[in-house]
Specification:
Blueprint lengths: L3 E7 L3 H12 L4 E4 L7 H4 L31 H15 L3 E2 L4 E7 L2 E6 L3 E9 L6 E2 L13 E4 L13 E5 L3 H12 L4 E4 L5 E2 L2 E2 L2 E2 H8 L8 H7 L9 E2 L11 E4 L2 E5 L2 E4 L8 E6 L3 E2 L29 E3 L16 H20 L2
Parallel strand pairs: 1-2, 1-6, 2-3, 6-20, 8-18, 9-10, 9-18, 10-15, 11-14
Antiparallel strand pairs: 4-5, 5-6, 7-19, 12-13, 16-17
Length: 358
């Protein structure tokens, strides 16, 4: 049998690294596994102009401030560099290019199988988030083969798309950013989706996050306000931060209703209009979880784990960190993941100690 760890952390993004910080402070024998070849790789793969809507002062992981002016909005590569610096600063035991193919239970421990070996641990923290599989509506397959289709995870910049009009489906922050960039490049662009509302960048002379962080991001999902903010569920769109739908109405950008189907190979809107001018569709329709590699009976609706603050009662010793709305509205954000990580590590440490004492 291979070496027995106290805890194996699966995923070296912000959730996994925050968990590692608390594991290290607790003196745990742990290992972090990640399938990427570099720390921060998932951030570097995002579109070129991506900028966070949370300012620097609200993007820190525990123990190391995010660098920069407090109210600057970091670009994606800033985040990747920060995560790399975080691993180096705390000398965290990360094993890269190591994809986990299965997680199973075996008596009083867990067995983690990777591409090349089998590892065992008393507890496991799954820190892969919940944005695994790009979601595209089923009717997309009926679009004409002459139309180019890209999910937002594949979009890089306007120059990487063929000439002609672009339909951006999904009007949340990602869709609005991408549509605005395409329109400003001179392309006819349609932004499709329901109005998710908007929040100004500054309120009463201060950055909006000085207000949001303590009023909107802090409530637990069990509170009245938390339930109201979750609204349509785990995959509902968030309001635009820093600009309104009206501000997006420049000459080359048109906001339209939801894209609901296909007519003669072209996108059809909910008002019956068919966009025959479109040559490319960019799907900003989000992601869905894909936890099929976890072979434990711990999942409920929409493929999410049944958990309480990240702790899974059906599999003692298993925890999750980085899920959207895990405990607070801001749980999955860079600056919001630390509280869940600390709680899960503390709960699992108590569980591990009980197993050691048997």
């Amino acid at each position: 049998m291979s070496h027995l760890y106290d805890t194996i952390v699966i995923g070296a993004g912000q959730a996994g690294l925050a968990s590692a910080y608390y594991l290290q402070r607790a003196g745990s024998r742990f290992l972090i596994l990640d399938g990427a070849s570099h720390i921060g790789e998932s951030w570097r793969r995002r579109w070129d102009s991506l900028r966070l809507f949370t300012p620097v002062r609200y993007n820190s992981l525990p123990g190391l401030p995010f660098p920069g002016e407090p109210y600057a909005l970091p670009v994606k590569d800033d985040v990747a560099r920060y995560l790399e610096a975080y691993v180096a600063h705390f000398t965290l035991p990360v094993r890269l290019s190591t994809r986990v193919s299965s997680l199973v239970g075996d008596a009083d421990r867990f067995v983690v199988t990777t591409d090349g070996e089998t590892l065992t641990a008393r507890s496991v923290i799954v820190a892969t988030g919940a944005y695994h599989r790009a979601y595209i509506p089923a009717f997309a397959s009926a679009l004409s083969p002459s139309l180019v289709q890209r999910h937002s995870s594949e979009y890089r910049n306007p120059g990487a798309l063929p000439p002609g009009g672009v339909l951006v489906v999904g009007a949340g922050n990602s869709g609005a950013q991408i549509a605005l960039e395409l329109a400003e490049s001179g392309r006819p662009t349609w932004l499709s989706g329901r109005d998710t509302g908007s929040i100004p960048r500054r309120v009463l002379g201060r950055d909006v996050y000085d207000w949001l962080w303590w009023t909107v991001m802090r409530p637990s999902v069990d509170s009245w306000l938390g339930r109201r903010l979750m609204g349509g569920g785990l995959f509902a769109g968030d309001p635009l931060v820093g600009y309104s739908r009206r501000a997006l109405m420049i000459p080359t950008l048109t906001s339209v209703g939801r894209t609901v189907g296909v007519s003669n190979g072209h996108p059809r809107l909910d008002d019956g209009r068919v966009l025959e001018e479109v040559r490319t569709v960019v799907w900003c329709t989000g992601f869905r979880p894909d936890f099929k590699w976890i072979r434990l009976p711990v999942f409920g609706s929409e493929g999410y784990p049944d958990h309480r603050r990240g702790i899974v009662a059906a599999a003692p010793g298993l925890g999750f960190v980085g899920l959207r709305y895990q405990y607070r509205v801001g749980s999955s954000l860079l600056g919001g993941v630390h509280e869940d990580a600390e709680y899960v590590v503390r709960q699992l440490a108590s569980h591990d100690q009980g197993r050691k004492n048997r």
